[in-house]
Amino acid sequence: MTTTSKTVVVTGASRGIGRAVALGFAKAGHDVWALARSTEALESLRQEGGERIRPLAVDVADEAALIAASQRILAEGPPRVLVNNAGITVSAPLAKTRTEDLARVMAVNVTAPFLLCRELMPAMAQAGGGRVINIGSMAAVRGVKYTSAYCASKHALLGLTRALAVEYAKKQVTVNIVNPGWVETDMFAGATSAISASTGRSEEQAREALASMNAMGRIITPEEVAALCLFLASDAAGGITGSAYAIDGGELG
Question: What is the mean pLDDT of residues 76-102?
Fold first, then answer.
């Protein structure tokens, strides 16, 4: 890949990691298709990121809508980078995890990345190559209690990453996965609130408990994850594919 401006697709771009990734690529001079459900949040992103941001409101759990979005993107030229970031979680014991909860988590966390890869990767390869970066989780490489649906989805995303990396290795499209630990996002805020409600501890104490799970004793920022994505999309990462990058403050040692 060249160092010139690239067209980038980012899902879940309206907040958290996705927003930081979209802004990071836009500030680096790349055109960004920013996909998310909220038109209002996408407009806020566009105002911050400027003309490089191209908002596209879509629910990635809606297969027909996602395919239509892919066709719209391809109509203006194949992207060079795809960042599958959109993700949701369900926190509940196995016995209280409903089938519909599992279906929704898998639709957003696994099926949507699969569909986008299926729709966009052939065009990327035909255009000379590209980068696919999947945003996973530490739950992609280990078990976490009370998150069976989420863990299953992230393990599946890791498998998808490895399979597509091998399939497209000679087509100049790399596929890697970034596995963050706890990151300053709405999901993290929800976790601290849930811990506080269930244990009686303050949210600050809950935050400290989660931070203490990694060696650095701190929470990762969305901008740090975005920086890793920018590296994986760069020329310097041209020989890297099928890899899982942990950004977890040393949580796994």
Answer: 96
Output the six-digit token pair for 149: 């649906």
CA 28/CA 52 separation, integer angstroms: 10
Domain 7-181+221-238 in this protein, CATH class: alpha beta
For residue range 142-159, list pLDDT tens digits in order.
Answer: 999 999 999 999 999 999
Q: How far apart are the first and last CA of the chain?
A: 33
Q: Are 77 and 121 in contact (CB under 8 A)?
A: no
Active-site residue flag, 150: yes
- Of 146, 150, 168, 245, the catalytic one is 150
* Banded model confidence at residue 1, pLDDT cuts 50, 70, 90: very low
CA distance 253 to 251: 5
Q: Per-residue pLDDT tens for 79-89?
A: 999 999 999 99
Domain boundaries, the chain: 7-181+221-238, 183-219
